Amino acid sequence: MARPGLRTGAAGVIVLGASLAVLLSAPPARANTQDAELIYECALALDYATEKGTRLPVSANRAMAHFGEVTGNDAGLRARADQAIDAAWDDYRKKNGRKALDRYILSVAQDCSDLYVERAERDSAATEGQLNSLGTLSAAALRSYATRTGDYGEVADYLVYYYPYGKDLFKPNEDGDLLGQLIVETGAAGLRRWSDEAIYAIATKHYWQYNPPATRLVFAEYQRRMRMKRQSEAEAQRWAQRAADARAERARQANAPYVGSLGGGSSTRPRTGSGVVVCTTYKGTGGGRVCKEED
Fold it and tell me: Which end of the chain has fewer beta carbons closer than 10 Å to its terminal beta carbon, N or C?
């Protein structure tokens, strides 16, 4: 996810602690101004920590995604939060000095990271076994898994396996919408680690109703891979269609396994009989990864 205007250096003092903990425990459907400021400060602080070389398990992208979820990407709330934090951090710097402000921002980043990790761990046990009406893992379960493990690519593999031809745009599309959110959060660099199956399927089929940033990111990665493989658009689409047909055929089998280890516990397996899947990479035009269940 390209950080949408996240800044470092200028800033603001928004009290975290119990207020943010409550917000993370049960985020409101529509955040008020104070809620927005709490989450937005997390995003700015986490971004600052990254630029300072501090490695934390939660990125600014996660906080910005959370901000979007609870504000509906309200531009007015974001502008007010940005101004409030900018003014408050600037005031803190004038009163306490630049080094003290740096320490404060890094402490905010650590607190926010800890709270997001705690939330993910708390929610994971309750949500990662949830199935939807189709018998596959629910969007909430997949979000929990992605947040807890950071393995967004495996969630993408799971979704393109169960929806080889994309999602029906005339039916509830929570899985596809989640996939779009994960693409934006992982960003261009993160997409390079996703499988060919996921990138080619997502680029050539519909998985969400409307998410222009996700569409741009995944199509750019799709074009990059075509250049690396020296594939034309027609060749790439044929490759994607063959891979989708193969996944659809396996899904029709009674013991069809899903790709990867997602949902490895018996309580989270959407289907019984799933075995270990081994993927082999074939190079050259029309190549890619082929995944089969071990005998």
Answer: C
**Four-point Cα dihedral 225, 65, 175, 270, nearest 10:** 100
Supply 95's token pair. Answer: 């009163």
To the nearest whole number, what is the mean pLDDT of the chain? Answer: 74
pLDDT in tens, 196-245: 888 988 998 888 888 899 999 999 999 998 888 787 777 777 777 787 77
pTM here is: 0.48
Q: Which residues contact residue 105 at a Cβ distance below 8 angstroms, ignoring those fewer than 6 apart?
A: 11, 44, 45, 48, 49, 89
Instruction: Extract the tokens encoding 246.
Output: 């193969």
On whether the CB atoms of residues 105 and 49 are closer than 8 A, the answer is: yes
What does the domain layout of the chain look like in residue ranges?
18-121, 128-293
pLDDT tens-digit series, residues 233-252: 777 777 777 877 777 776 66
Sign of CA dihedral 65, 69, 70, 72: positive
Q: Is 160 exposed, middle or buried (0-12, 13-18, 19+ CB in 10 A)?
A: buried
